[in-house]
Amino acid sequence: MSRPPPVRVPPKQKMSVWGTPWPLDPSLLRVRLKYIGARFLQMPEPRMSLRNTEEILRFAEQMLDDGGARAATELTRLAIEEDPEQRLLWLFLFARAFETDDAQAFAELQPIFTARFPADAALGEIEVLSQWLAAPGHPPPDPGRTAPWHPRALLGHDGRDQRLFHDRLGQIAQSPPVR
Amino acid sequence: MTMSTTGPSSTQPVPLSHDEIVGRHRSLEKNMVAFKPRDTVNAVTQALRAFEDATRSEREHLFKTGMFTTKVDQQAASWLADRYEHLLLLARSSITRAFGTEDVDNGLRAQSCALALLLSGHAMKWRRIAGCRADADAHEWTHQIFRTSVAFQVDAVVLQVRIEEQQVDATVEALYVRSLLLDRLAAGNVLPRRLEILDNWLAAWMSALWLNRSASPDEPTLGINTNNPQRGLTPHVAGDGAHLFFGLKPLQRQLDRVIREFHLGRVFPGWGLGAQAPVEDHVGTIEILEREMIIVENAQRQKAQRGKRVSFGTNSVVGVFFGFKEICELAFSQSRLHSMAGGGGELGIRNAINLADVSEGGLGLDMMDEDARKVQVGELVAIRLEKGRPCVIGVVVRKSGLQRPTATLVGVKLFSKSPVWSTMERVDEATNTWQPTEGILIAGPAADGFADSLIVSDKTYVANSPMAVTLGGQTFELALRRVREQGSGWRMAAFDAVAVA
Question: Containing H/E element for B427?
Fold first, then answer.
């Protein structure tokens, strides 16, 4: 009796919280880490930093200040990928999706967050914002609605004086002083 | 990169000297006169393929060395730029013949336009890499080829284009957009290796490079006026005369795809000369595109400020000041405000400096070699573009030879078009006393003020140390935070501001 041809067992694959495969192959992992190191120079030890919520929020805050909103979102997603229990980072991602009027990104986050934090206090507000974004023809999102989920607010910083400084600087830049 | 009409290449790389290659191109130019339109297109296609096969290792070597700073590298880059330019001229003449004869089918017409636009992108890229000035007629030719393809309804014909030994599906329209995007993104200060990576990405994104006949109000958009020979793609604002539009959302999605690939440990697209570049260069290219998207997104806001913006043309003499000290002393001086006299006295710069090219985020200065040698990458520069207007401020990020033997292109990344010089105070830690100093304030784009920066001398900068400045009658204490940019003798830092009661 002839045996059936041998079957190759597919390699084990670990999936990330986003449903993408983890690069388990050492050469792939090396490229990933090299990329993260080059993209986020603030992190000398990316795999440690990505698990430190406060540090990630601080980096994200700095990136937002430097005009790197997309990089801030990317870093936060990487950190959640590394440790999905970092709740505050999820809230920041919701804030970003809301402010950029990205209903698709918001809808992608919502079920994963709900499954992971089923009794979370923010779920009610997330549902409200989700419906608002999904409504056709809605006005531009008001960033004030998600202000408490911003890194600066999550880290407990206030920025009134900074805004005042910026306003004054803007006025002076229109006719700058000469020496 | 070459275009294929009949599938994979059968041509093997042949080691040819530069003279042999030039000789072949010249004889092709002579013989083409007797060719039929189809043979003309095929001959130029084959010549391009043979040229790229023959120079692949040379181009690989150039991108490996990366900076194009040696004379040998610069000459090689100039030669490659010349060759692409010559092939482009041949391709343009093939268009004239393909459209000037009635018995030519539209497939061939599309091929001739695609070939010319492919070469237009190559030539433009290599001109930038070699530090040559942009061809004055380049935009007009590119627009005209596209207009012709639209008139004959061949702009959307899908063709197979061979790019770095890959067969890529592309339309005339996609190749037109690629050429204009390269032109836009390469202006100012992009490093050659990053430009090559970008071009590889654009080749892989061909399916996303399409134009709309109307602008989407919800999307950052670049506009084109194909009748304006001076302009390529520019951020669209209402009333700018654009009648074709390139929405950036598809480009953003493609960029997200590149980033996802890196998260998975793969280099996108996995082929091309750029694939061998260090990951840092790929990250740099991502940042170029992200910066570009921010610039386009801010276009509406910039339009509101247009009345205050300076107007200037390339090739004009500009006043340039180098280094923090000189900038504070001269660039913001009342006595220099209505003069185009620059500084550079301390460095020993003797000749006038011209503006070579300009984009929203950077500009190129055309300097004599002997002067450019004294200017280092990382040098803080202030540039007066127009008499009576404040200087713009930025940093030297690149130097490369210009086509003229004694000229160098100095690439400057702009920090601000309206910097504010101010006297201020700092705490001297040794004596614990307030001491007078000076700094340059840069307003950032964020309304919350956390994107604002302060440029101070490197001796003044002490992390977390307090400084004080008075703006419009209100005194603020500033705590200097992280350094955003730095160079020889200066730091540009973020800060936290607290109003003093």
Answer: strand B420-428
| pLDDT tens, N- to C-terminus, chain B (501 residues) | 444 443 344 445 557 889 999 999 999 999 998 999 899 999 999 999 999 999 999 999 888 876 666 778 888 999 999 999 999 999 999 998 888 887 888 899 999 999 999 999 999 999 888 877 667 788 889 999 999 999 999 999 999 999 888 889 999 999 999 999 998 888 766 888 999 999 999 999 999 999 999 988 778 899 999 888 778 888 888 888 899 999 999 999 999 999 999 999 999 999 999 988 999 999 999 999 998 888 888 765 555 444 344 445 666 888 999 999 999 999 998 888 888 888 887 788 888 888 887 776 788 888 888 888 888 889 999 999 888 888 999 999 887 766 666 788 888 989 998 999 999 999 988 888 999 999 999 998 888 888 899 999 999 998 888 899 999 889 999 999 889 999 989 999 999 999 887
The C-alpha atoms of residue B23 and residue B29 are separated, in whole angstroms, by 10
As a whole number of angstroms, the distance between CA A100 and CA A112 comes to 20
Q: Please, which residues 323-342 of chain B have a Cβ atom closer than 8 Å to chain A?
A: 328-329, 332-334, 337
Structural tokens at position B485: 């940019």
What angle do helix axes A26-39 and A69-82 make, rounded to 10 degrees? 140
Strand partners, B364: B357, B411
pTM of the model: 0.79
Of the candidates B106, B238, B452, B419, the one whose C-alpha atom is nearest the C-alpha of residue A161 is: B452
Asked if A68 lies within 8 A of B290 by C-beta distance, the reply is yes
Chain A residues whose CB is inside 8 A of the B450 CB are: 61, 64-65, 152, 159, 162
CA nearest A65 in B: which residue? B451
Instruction: Report yes or no: B433 and B426 within 8 Å, Cβ to Cβ.
Output: no
Phi-psi label, residue B235: left if phi above 0, alpha if psi -120 to 50, beta otherwise? beta
Q: Which one of A32, A78, A163 has the shortest CB-CB distance to B449?
A: A163
Q: What DSSP designation does A123 have?
A: H
Chain A environment of B218 (Cβ under 8 Å): 101
Which residues of chain A make contact with B266, given a CB cutoff of 8 A? 28, 31
Measured distance CA(B467)–CA(B461) in Å, rounded: 10
Q: What is the ipTM of this complex?
A: 0.85
Decide: B235 and B299 in contact? Cβ < 8 Å. yes
Which whole-number Å values give the CA distances from B32 to B27, B91, B269, B368, B472, in the listed order?
8, 11, 36, 40, 71
Using left for φ > 0, alpha for ψ between -120 and 50, and beta otherwise, residue B274 falls in alpha
